[in-house]
C-alpha cells in the first residue's frame, strides 16, 4: 500500500499554498521582460570588494578564522548583538544584548514569532495590504486574520481599537516604507498605535526591514524607540524584527528579533531545537562588513535607490492615464499602484507579460481579505533608470487600452 500523504501531512503544513502568481512570474526573469515584480535588492549595489576583504581578513586570521567555522551559541555572536544594540541605541531604542536574538533573516524571525504567539483561530491584526511573506509564516499556525484599513498616515486607529476591543492581542505592522505600498506612518499615528496597544495589553510585531532605506524627510522614531520612552524595555509592548538583507546582502541570512528578555529566552530554546544557531561565519562577516561600511554604504544605497524611485515617479506622472493613482514612498523599494476599478491587475499581468513585456505583482495577494483586485506592487530596485521609464510607459499604454475596452 502506498503512503497516504494527504493524511500524513499535518494541517499546519497543509495550510501553506503554492502561489499561482509566483509561477506566472517565473518568466519575469527573462531579459526581454522589464520586471518591477522582484522584491529583492539591486545586486549591483552589493559591496563585493568589502566582502572580499572581510572574508580574507577572517580566514587569514588563524584564531578568528577557526572560531568562525565552529558551532556557536543560539543567541547569536555577542559582538554582533552588541553592534545591533549600539545601532538601536542611536535610534533611541535602548536595548541590552540579552534583548536580541540573531535569526536566519527576518523571515525566520516571523516564523519563530508565529510559532511562539499564534495558534489555530487566534487573531492577528494585519495592515491591508501587508507583507506576503509574513502572512505565509503566520498561515502555518492557522490564525484568524483581522485586516485593518490604512490611510496616508498609517493604520486607521478606530479599526485597530475595534480589533483589540473584540479580543485580538497581536498586530503585525510595518511603519517604515512598507512592503508592498512603500508608505510610512506619521509620528502622531505611531504614538496612537502604541497608546491603543497599551490600552489593551496587546503586542506589536514591528517589521523594520526597510527602515534604513530612507530617501528624504526626517527619520521618524520606530515604535520600538517610542515604546522605550515609557520605561523598562523588558516590559515593552513592541517586538521588532530587523535584517541586513536590504543593507548588506540577503544571502548572509542575518536578521534579528528585539524583544523583552522572557520572550528572547523562550525563542532561544526554539532556536536551539530548530537549527542551533545562525551560521557563525556569516554572523562574523556581517559584523565586520557593517562595522566597516556603515554609515557610508547606507548613503550610497539611499542615493542609488532615491534616483530610481524618482525616475519611476516621474515616469508614472508622465505616462499614466487619469484614474490611476500611486504612492510616493520616501524610502524602501516599492510604489503601490491603484488602477481604475474595472481593471483586474491579475488579468492585466498576463497581457503585460505577453504584450508589453513588463512584470509587476498583482496587489490582491497582499490582502488578507482578498480585496485589492485593482492594485499592483511595482519595485524600482533592480531595473536601470532607462528600463524603469520604458517599462512604465509600456504599462501605461496597456492600462489606457484596457480602460477603454
Ligand atoms: C517587510 C519584510 N520583512 C521581512 C523580510 C524578510 O527578509 P529577510 O528574511 O531576508 O531578512 C522581507 C523580505 O523581503 C520584507 O520585505
UniProtKB/TrEMBL annotation:
Keyword entries, A-Z: Aminotransferase, DNA-binding, Pyridoxal phosphate, Transferase
Pfam families: Aminotran_1_2 (PF00155)
CDD domains registered for this protein in UniProt: AAT_like
Domain Aminotransferase class I/classII large: 63-395
Superkingdom of source: Bacteria
Cofactors, names only: pyridoxal 5'-phosphate
Signal peptide limits: none
Sample GO molecular function, one term: DNA binding
InterPro entries documented for this protein: Aminotransferase_I/II_large (IPR004839), Class-I_PLP-dep_aminotransf (IPR050859), PyrdxlP-dep_Trfase (IPR015424), PyrdxlP-dep_Trfase_major (IPR015421), PyrdxlP-dep_Trfase_small (IPR015422)
Protein name as it appears in the record: DNA-binding transcriptional MocR family regulator
Amino acid at each position: 500500500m502506498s503512503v497516504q500523504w494527504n493524511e500524513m501531512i499535518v494541517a499546519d503544513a497543509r495550510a501553506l499554498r503554492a502561489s499561482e502568481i509566483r509561477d506566472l512570474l517565473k518568466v519575469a526573469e527573462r531579459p526581454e521582460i522589464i520586471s518591477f515584480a522582484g522584491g529583492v535588492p539591486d545586486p549591483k549595489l552589493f559591496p563585493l570588494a568589502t566582502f572580499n576583504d572581510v572574508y580574507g581578513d577572517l580566514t587569514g586570521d588563524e584564531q578568528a578564522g577557526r572560531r568562525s567555522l565552529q558551532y556557536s551559541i543560539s543567541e547569536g555572536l555577542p559582538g554582533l548583538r552588541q553592534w545591533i544594540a549600539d545601532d538601536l541605541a542611536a535610534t533611541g531604542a535602548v536595548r541590552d544584548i540579552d534583548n536580541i536574538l540573531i535569526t536566519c533573516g527576518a523571515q525566520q524571525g516571523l516564523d519563530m514569532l508565529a510559532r511562539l504567539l499564534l495558534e489555530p483561530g487566534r487573531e492577528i491584526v494585519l495592515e491591508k495590504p501587508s507583507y506576503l511573506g509574513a502572512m505565509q509564516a503566520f498561515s502555518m499556525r492557522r490564525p484568524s486574520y483581522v485586516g485593518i484599513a490604512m490611510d496616508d498616515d498609517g493604520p486607521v486607529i478606530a479599526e485597530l481599537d475595534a480589533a483589540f476591543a473584540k479580543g485580538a492581542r497581536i498586530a503585525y505592522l510595518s511603519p517604515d516604507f512598507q512592503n508592498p505600498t512603500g508608505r510610512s506612518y506619521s509620528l502622531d499615528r505611531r504614538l496612537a498605535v502604541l497608546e491603543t496597544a497599551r490600552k489593551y495589553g496587546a503586542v506589536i510585531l514591528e517589521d523594520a526591514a526597510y527602515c534604513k532605506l530612507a530617501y528624504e524627510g526626517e527619520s521618524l522614531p520606530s515604535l520600538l524607540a517610542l515604546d522605550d520612552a515609557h520605561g523598562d524595555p523588558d516590559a515593552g509592548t513592541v517586538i521588532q524584527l530587523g535584517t541586513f538583507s536590504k543593507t548588506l546582502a540577503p544571502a548572509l541570512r542575518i536578521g534579528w528579533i528585539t524583544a523583552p528578555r522572557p520572550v528572547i529566552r523562550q525563542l532561544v530554546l526554539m532556536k536551539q531545537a530548530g537549527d542551533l544557531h545562525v551560521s557563525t561565519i556569516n554572523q562574523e562577516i556581517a559584523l565586520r562588513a557593517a562595522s566597516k561600511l556603515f554609515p557610508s554604504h547606507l548613503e550610497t544605497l539611499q542615493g542609488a535607490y532615491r534616483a530610481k524611485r524618482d525616475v519611476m515617479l516621474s515616469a508614472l506622472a508622465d505616462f499614466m492615464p487619469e484614474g490611476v493613482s500611486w504612492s510616493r514612498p520616501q524610502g524602501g523599494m516599492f510604489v503601490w499602484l491603484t488602477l481604475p476599478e474595472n481593471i483586474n491587475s491579475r488579468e492585466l499581468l498576463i497581457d503585460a507579460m505577453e504584450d508589453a513585456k513588463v512584470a509587476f505583482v498583482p496587489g490582491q495577494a497582499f490582502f488578507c481579505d482578498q480585496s485589492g483586485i485593482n492594485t499592483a506592487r511595482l519595485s524600482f530596485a533592480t531595473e536601470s533608470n532607462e528600463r524603469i521609464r520604458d517599462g512604465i510607459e509600456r504599462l501605461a499604454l496597456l492600462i489606457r487600452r484596457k480602460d477603454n475596452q
